[in-house]
Amino acid sequence: MIEEEKSQASVRSGNQGGTMQGDTFSKVDEIIFSFIFPLYEQKKRQTTYVYRIIMIIWEIIQMFALSLYSVDEGTNEVDRISKVVGYLDGSQLSLILGKFMPYLNIVIFGLELAMIILIVVCCFFLRYILANQPWLLTFLRAYIEVKQRMLYIWITNINISSFDCYIDEDGLSHWRADNDILCFKSDILQIIGSVIAIINLIIFFAMSVILNVSIYNHNPKNGGLLSCPNGSFACLQNVLLFIIIFVMRIFYRWPFWRFLLSVGISVIIILYIVIVQPYYSFMSNFLSTLQWSIFESLRLCMEIGYIFETSMNSIIPTIIFIFIGIVLASAIFTSNYFMIKRRRRKLFFMKNGQPYINLRSQDWKVHSLPKIKDPNTVEPSVRFLQQKHNRTPEMYNYVDYIYTTAIKRHKQNAYLYFMYANFLCYYKKNFIKANSVYRQARISNPSFILRFVLYCKTKEEGRIGSESGS
Length: 470
Fold this sequence. Notes:
Helices cover 66% and strands 4% of the residues. The chain folds into two domains: 2-29 and 368-469, no CATH class; 40-347, no CATH class. The protein has 19 helices and seven strands. It has a three-stranded antiparallel sheet with strand order 3-4-5, with no helix packed on it. It has a two-stranded antiparallel ribbon with strand order 1-2. It has a two-stranded antiparallel ribbon with strand order 6-7. It has helices at residues 2-15, 27-36, 49-67, 80-85, 93-97, 101-124, 126-132, 135-150, 152-161, 188-214, 232-250, 255-276, 282-312, 316-347, 378-381, 393-409, 414-426, 431-442, 448-469; strands spanning 71-72, 77-78, 165-167, 173-175, 178-182, 350-351, 354-355. The chain is mainly alpha-helical. Residues 1-21 are annotated as: Disordered.
């Protein structure tokens, strides 16, 4: 086929002069990557759709509870509504445990160490585990999924509760979990718990960044919900969520900054999702805005409601504004739905629902694609393949032409080669050519994170080859 020959010629031209150079990984890379490789998993067909839906619902529930968190500045006590819903996000667990909170911090620290030890064990004994105890890898991945992602808000809130203090009218700092204990003064257990909690947060936050930026499903065809071309948004989202939790818990005496940072960050995340479209599918992008839309609208209304509650000394205004916030969130849902859909259509390399170029026509050379100045825009422009009716040989050839045209302009862009290889692997099932393009990505000076993913692809290819050979 003419298009296939042109595609292969384009890749061969990129390979010339650098076939062998840079194709291997440095010793430092291999040592670092080998520790995270056991967590890497790319299923041929994603079967966790229901789990993803449950996770999204769970995140919405936690963000709903977090949006209602407030502290009465007069009494320094948690607001009545927050006391009820705070058990959903872990912020009020300290009220149950009180002075026994440090013991929970020690347990969390033990869980952190257990995770690190398991990762190290799987790194050194990976071949044995794959051959004899593969369930251990499944357990480790599930353990990390629950601890680092499902319980992200819970663990962050619990650790912050260990050093969440307030100053009374006499200038004394009291621990909110137990008012009789002065912060960092009268109780050794509280001091130890606070130190351990800070260590927990550092380890937990660092692991969250590493895992989110490096471990993700990049299968564009069968990756399921929340599959994405890279982990940058998941990492950014967790960093900003950490900031929001910290602001909500610590900035209780500065309502203006609490409002500005919490609502402002939510707006930024929603706009980022709408404009950048970090996930492959429309539904993934839309569902990702739900929790932030709820948090944004409820936080806005709750800040107003608390002003009326303080002046009227009644909880009724706050309850009314909660319902107003729910209505506002529904309006934002609808707005996000249409904005994401409109933006998505604009990103496509399509004109009136048809390709810019019909490769089957005789005069296709007369027409040309829009100039591809930014190689990062290529992958979002071909997401019309997410729609099953567009998965035809003609459309595949058109997408192939888009990628090879972009590669001619950006011959040294490793990320572009990686996206092209994913298309060849998951859509066209041309594994031989895909491996060649992955190899070209490796020698095109990829970023550190992309090098890790390419390292995993190389190891995975070698493992599958050895298994088939044996």
